[in-house]
Amino acid sequence: MKINATDFYSNDSFARIKAEAAKHETPFLVVDTSIIGKGYDELTSAFPFAKIYYAVKANPAPQILSLLRDKGSNFDIASRYELDKVLAEGVTPDRISYGNTIKKARDVRYFYEKGVRLFASDSEADLRNIAKEAPGSRVYVRILTEGTLTADWPLSRKFGCQNDMALDLLILARELGLVPYGISFHVGSQQRDIGAWDAALGKVKLIYDRLKNEDGITLKMINMGGGFPGNYIVRTNDTATYAEEITRFLEEDFGDEMPEIILEPGRSLVANAGILVSEVVLISRKGNTSLNRWVFTDVGKFSGLIETMDEAIKYPIYTDRSGELEGCTIAGPTCDSADIMYEDFKYPLPLDLQIGDRLYWFSTGAYTTSYSAIEFNGFPPLQAHYI
Ligand SMILES: Cc1ncc(COP(=O)(O)O)c(C=O)c1O
């Protein structure tokens, strides 16, 4: 498994990123924002009927927020701090959804005071907070979905509620003076099985019909969350295939009465645009006859690569060396033994790799900078350069 740059980046883009990388000392992330722009255009033409709410948590850099603002994106927000960042870019509150189901009552009030009127919920206590602190707002209820086994970064269990509870919450929303607006789900991040959307939409359809036929509530919106893939080692279908299939599922379930559709892409919009550049600090073996090579780099789980937890996300790693490949263990620079990125998966790296060489971690534009610790072992947070 040799990682070729041309399988992941255009020559132009890779040259631009490398030129920027040459100016800085490792470790750092370089993001080519033109890739994000193109990805956004691709997504909107694949899903012409959908409204995009960029999941800011994937990468909250102002350069990305302003680019997506200008492209007409809306924003899915997880906290008041993200809200402040997005408002600071001049985004109006009607383009914002408070998508976190776990929130303090005073944060709901904060969003309301800033003009936000669209809220997610999955529990009675939270719904009552929304009714009190954000009266009259539109709410959508998040349901539990399956898909854990086929998503590389599952979001199961913690978010969403079962169908019968979703029904109760939407009915209660109306009683509390809120607008029961729609249903949301997230099939799990880096979801490789497109069928996961089919199963989730089947559940949504049941709730829609029940509310309409028995309770006189016509929901207006389905929020299909994120889950679309970045380009890592494990192959996935392309955006067009996801779009074709998901559109078919929607048409089968809703026909001509398709409600407003929201997508909340995070990873798929920004992952491919970033390359994390690190340096090999040490190459060693643990015994005189050991066959296993350890490669230590100046970036690790605590400086942006936390999604290698359980070796969930397998980033493509490129080096300029082209020697014979040998599987190795790759670990970060801190004095914590959890700081190992790949150990079960023997990552093939060239045998002629040397201390001081640069490693280019492809598709690291999502969930890296924002996850980086601020001072673990004294190491500063991951730096980023946007071109
Ligand atoms: C509510 C919500 N929407 C969207 C996303 C983005 O998902 P993805 O990065 O898979 O596109 C997340 C990710 O955690 C989320 O929690």
From TrEMBL:
Extent of the signal sequence: none
Keyword Lyase among record annotations: yes
Modified positions (N6-(pyridoxal phosphate)lysine) in chain numbering: K57
Annotated active site: C335 (proton donor)
Domain of life, source organism: Bacteria
GO molecular function terms attached to this record: ornithine decarboxylase activity
GO biological process, one term: putrescine biosynthetic process from arginine, via ornithine
Cofactor(s) annotated in UniProt: pyridoxal 5'-phosphate
Cross-referenced InterPro entries: Ala_racemase/Decarboxylase_C, De-COase2_CS, De-COase2_N, De-COase2_pyr-phos_BS, Orn/DAP/Arg_de-COase, Orn_de-COase, PLP-binding_barrel
EC number: 4.1.1.17
Pathway in which this enzyme or protein is active: Amine and polyamine biosynthesis; putrescine biosynthesis via L-ornithine pathway; putrescine from L-ornithine: step 1/1
Reaction catalysed by this enzyme: L-ornithine + H(+) = putrescine + CO2
GO annotation, cellular component aspect: cytoplasm
Keywords: Lyase, Pyridoxal phosphate
Database matches in CDD domains: PLPDE_III_ODC (cd00622)
Start and end residues of each Orn/DAP/Arg decarboxylase 2 N-terminal domain: 40-271
Recorded family membership: Belongs to the Orn/Lys/Arg decarboxylase class-II family.
PANTHER family: ARGININE/DIAMINOPIMELATE/ORNITHINE DECARBOXYLASE (PTHR11482), ORNITHINE DECARBOXYLASE 1-RELATED (PTHR11482:SF6)
Protein's name in the database: ornithine decarboxylase
Protein source organism: Gimibacter soli
Lineage of the organism: Bacteria, Pseudomonadati, Pseudomonadota, Alphaproteobacteria, Kordiimonadales
